[in-house]
TrEMBL record:
Taxon lineage: Eukaryota, Metazoa, Chordata, Craniata, Vertebrata
Keyword field contains Zinc: no
Residue span(s) of domain UDENN: 39-435
Species the sequence originates in: Ptilorrhoa leucosticta
Keyword list, A-Z: Guanine-nucleotide releasing factor
Protein known as: DEN2D protein
Xref: Pfam families: dDENN, DENN, uDENN
Length: 439
């Protein structure tokens, strides 16, 4: 797998002011459930319907769950119904073909309780036995997880399912090993065996996991390659105020990589609203939603999107590297001095100033945005008033008043009203541990 080709891992740079339940415990929403990294291995194939068109259907699922409780069974059914739609969001205009560019991407499904489940996909052209007789069709191998990883992980389900092999023998052990990959082993290299070929039956797949959990699913380089630092800051500014953001690209991999990267710029805060890196064609009316959202749409649907009766939104064309539609005040949202500092930092990284690995780019870009939040709201812990019962109460007015710069205070007064800040403070009010490095 491509994840294992580089042994480098990022240095720990989690700021000490991030609220944590226990020392060393990860607070990311993606690490809230599940002992193992993967829950299911699934193959989705295109099946010919009586009217001649092709529809995506699950043709393989491992493991088959039995004896589930009613609530668990309903959740599993919702998951399995949604998976084919998100594996083929392009619609139903499919036919047997001889050439198809393979792609790796991921999608996100949000549960009723707000938790997220991620599908790591590899879509490629496959011959029988997974497709109908002799007709190669695009097919998807995916693994589902509650945990965030690089979208490049989609290569592993392909190996574990043996999707690129006509011989399906000895797969059971490899699939079970794949599913039992632990979600807790941060850092170092995780290994699993996969059925390869008759000549080399077992292959060792190695996955390198970064030490820093919040950078695990991020590829900032994908964003820097397609957008100027100036535009990235406009997008970041819109995201901090929880506006509606629409990203356009033709490739599913570009959409998922870039949207994950934008969401990661908000760390240690988490985007708490509608989040669909790849929107299926039949759900395009999502852009009419009056509440905040961050969505990715294939560029071929641009005209249909623009025809929708939507409210103000930022529309970003990742193919052309430009913003198609904006509110108009994006330049003034962030405090000028801090905005210039981040612009200088992004330009430095964008010029690849002695930065060679994706991990280094991730760490340096993340550091610039974390520093932005430290400068503006890093003093929050000093304004949590603790009661005798141990519960905390955030003193919002005093917190804002303590900021000397007028432009910084103006931004923070808006930022404290967002869901992402409220959720962050709620966690801080629950976890009374010594805070360091405030200010």
């Amino acid at each position: 797998a491509s994840e294992g080709k580089d042994g480098a891992s990022t240095a720990e740079n989690t700021p000490p002011w991030v609220p944590q339940g226990k020392p060393g415990e990860r607070s990311s929403v993606f690490y809230s459930a599940g002992q193992f990294f993967f829950e299911y291995l699934v193959v989705v194939s295109l099946k010919k319907m009586p009217d001649g068109h092709y529809e995506p259907k699950i043709t393989y699922q491992f493991p088959k769950r039995e004896n589930l409780l009613k609530g668990q069974k309903e959740e599993e059914e919702r998951l399995l119904q949604a998976i084919p739609l998100f594996c083929f969001p392009d619609g139903n205009n499919w036919a047997p073909m001889t050439e198809f560019t393979s792609e790796t991407f991921s999608f996100v499904l949000t549960n009723v309780d707000g938790s997220r489940k991620i599908g790591y996909c590899r879509r490629l052209l496959v011959s029988p036995p997974y497709t109908q007789r002799g007709s190669p069709l695009p097919t998807v191998a995916l693994g589902t997880s509650c945990h965030a990883r690089s979208s490049a992980l989609g290569d592993v389900p392909q190996k574990a399912t043996g999707l690129d092999q006509s011989d399906d023998r000895q797969q059971e052990g490899a699939r079970r090993g794949f599913l039992e990959l632990s979600a807790e082993a941060m850092g170092g290299v995780l290994s699993l065996l996969s059925w390869g070929s008759m000549a080399l039956p077992w292959q060792l797949i190695e996955l390198t996991r970064p030490v820093d959990a919040h950078l695990e699913h991020v590829e900032f380089q994908a964003l820097l390659q397609r957008l100027s630092p100036h535009l990235i800051l406009h997008i970041f500014a819109s995201a901090t105020l929880e506006r509606r953001l629409i990203f356009l690209a033709e490739e599913l991999s570009v959409l998922s990589q870039c949207i994950h990267a934008v969401a990661a710029l908000l760390y240690p805060f988490t985007w708490a609203h509608t989040y669909i890196p790849v929107v299926p064609e039949c759900l395009l009316d999502t852009v009419c939603c009056p509440t905040p959202f961050m969505v990715g749409i294939q560029r071929r649907h641009l005209e249909r999107v623009l025809e929708q009766p939507m409210e103000e939104a930022l529309i970003v064309d990742l193919c052309e590297g430009k913003i198609i539609r904006e509110v108009g005040d994006e330049e003034e949202i962030l405090p000028g001095k801090l905005q210039n500092e981040m612009l200088i930092s992004l330009n430095r990284h964008n010029n690849n100033n002695n930065v060679h690995t994706l991990e280094q780019v991730n760490a340096l870009v993340s550091e610039a945005f974390v520093h932005f939040f430290v400068r503006l709201v890093g003093h929050y812990a000093s304004y949590i008033k603790w009661g005798r019962s141990g519960s905390g109460s955030f003193q919002e007015r005093a917190f804002c008043k303590a900021i000397a710069s007028k432009s910084c205070r103006r931004f923070v007064k808006k930022f404290v009203k967002t869901n992402m800040f409220s959720l962050f403070i709620e966690e801080a009010e629950k976890s009374r541990i010594p805070q360091e490095g405030n200010g």
